[in-house]
Every structure is written in structure tokens, then in C-alpha cells.
Write a structure and sequence with these properties.
Radius of gyration: 17 Å
Structural class: alpha/beta
Pfam families: Isochorismatase
Protein name: Amidohydrolase RutB
Number of helices: 9
Shape: globular
GO molecular function: hydrolase activity
Family: Belongs to the isochorismatase family.
Bound molecules: tricarbonodiimidic diamide
Strand order of the largest sheet: 5-4-3-6-7-8
Domain Isochorismatase-like: 21-210
Distance between the termini: 19 Å
Largest sheet: 6 strands, parallel
């Protein structure tokens, strides 16, 4: 038997089944949130992303308390970099190559390096799957869909960074695969304030063209 709960969300509030829901925490990695990592090397102010940490912690606690499936993702590449395509590596010369360069947290965006790992504040429990992804979307070249199908998931609560890049790409991919993707607005963050705002609007516009938008408070309230 399923027990659905009410959730306030845009564009239309409704019911979700926590037992068929997952919390997906996107790329809360040191390389995006701490100085001298990937994000800062691209010219960004990493403190803007740190705003999502506390809301993500609250969402994570609520999901863990409810025994909801929690999945973490990390963007990154093999140490030999054979899975980095030329466009991603140097963007046709638009900026110097960053991936694989040495930094204080190891080689940037390379699996196994300290900077590639998830920040301590949101560190995955041993039982929580971690998806290592080479791209922006969490479905591309990963086994995320196999996990969601095996666990009978129909709704994905999405948080993490950055709103308009990896969060958005993942929500678009999830929507096309038939999942109801719900962004938790305050638990997402961008290096660009205006992109964060517009990216969230784009999800719920047109009757929820890509999914829905809710907040951590509403998520926690729905689970209590
Ligand atoms: N640069 C940027 O905004 N984001 C990324 O490169 N990856 C993610 O969003 N995780």
C-alpha cells in the first residue's frame, strides 16, 4: 500500500508518494564549492554556491529520516582523461584547459582526487549510491536510470549545483524518461543569480514543461 503526501509546488500542488521518490543531490563537490577548483578556474565566485549547503543538509536529513532513497552525483573524469571530449577540454580555445590540471585539491575534476569528492557537510552514507558522471546530465553514460527503475521510483526531488547546468540538464533528461522531477529551489544554486531564477521559472512554466518547483521547507513539511 502506498501513502501519498501533499506537497506545495509550482505550477500545481498535489500529492507524491515518498516510498516511490528519491532525493537526488547533484554535484555538491569540493571542485565546485571550494576555491581553486573547477568552478573558480572558470572565473566563478564559489561562495554563491555555498548558499545551497544548509538547505541541502535539511533536505538530506528529512529524506534519511523518512528512509527515502538518496542518490548523490559527482561530475568528473577518469584519471587518464580518455572520457573527456575535446570540446569539454578546451571549448575550442575559448578558455584554457582546466580539467586534469593540478591544484591544491588534486587534479581538477578527476575521479579519486580530493576536489572531486563531495563536501564533508553532505557526505554520502555508505548505503547511498553515488553516480559518477562524465557530463552535465545525471542520466548520460551512467546507471542512474537502472537504479531508479529497480527501486520503482516515479518522483525525483532534485537539488545541488548548478541550477542551470547540471540540475537543469538532469531534470530535462528525467522528464523525457517519464519521471516527475521536482526542483527544491533553495537547495539549488548558481554562480549567476539571474540564471538561477530563470532556470527555475523555465521548469515550472507552460504547465510544468520540465517538472515542478518546490522548496526545502515544503519538502520537509510534506514528509512530517
Ligand atoms: N559550470 C557550471 O555552472 N556547472 C558545471 O560545470 N557543472 C555542474 O553544474 N555540476
Amino acid at each position: 500500500m502506498t501513502t501519498k503526501v501533499k506537497l506545495e509546488m509550482e505550477p500545481k500542488s498535489g500529492e507524491v508518494d515518498p516510498s516511490r521518490s528519491a532525493l537526488l543531490i547533484i554535484d555538491m563537490q569540493r571542485d565546485f564549492l571550494e576555491p581553486k577548483g573547477f568552478g573558480e578556474s572558470l572565473g566563478n565566485d564559489v561562495t554563491k554556491l555555498q548558499r545551497a549547503i544548509e538547505p541541502c543538509q535539511r533536505a538530506l536529513k528529512a529524506a534519511r529520516d523518512k528512509k527515502m532513497l538518496v542518490i548523490h552525483t559527482r561530475e568528473g573524469h577518469r584519471p587518464d582523461m580518455t572520457d573527456v571530449h575535446p570540446y569539454k577540454l578546451n571549448k575550442r580555445g575559448a578558455c584554457p584547459p582546466v580539467i586534469g590540471q593540478p591544484g591544491p585539491n588534486g587534479r581538477i575534476l578527476i575521479r579519486g582526487e580530493p576536489g572531486h569528492d563531495i563536501i564533508p557537510q553532505l557526505y554520502p552514507a555508505a548505503s547511498e549510491p553515488i553516480i559518477d558522471k562524465p557530463g552535465k546530465g545525471s542520466f548520460y553514460a551512467t546507471d542512474l536510470e537502472a537504479i531508479l527503475q529497480a527501486q520503482s521510483i516515479e518522483t525525483i526531488f532534485v537539488c545541488g549545483v548548478t541550477t542551470e547546468v547540471c540540475v537543469h540538464t538532469t531534470i530535462r533528461e528525467g522528464n523525457d524518461r517519464g519521471y516527475h522531477c521536482i526542483a527544491l529551489s533553495d537547495a539549488c544554486a548558481s554562480y549567476f543569480d539571474e540564471f538561477h531564477t530563470v532556470a527555475l521559472k523555465m521548469i515550472s512554466a507552460q504547465g510544468g514543461i520540465f517538472g515542478s518547483v518546490s522548496s526545502v521547507d515544503q519538502f520537509v513539511k510534506s514528509l512530517n
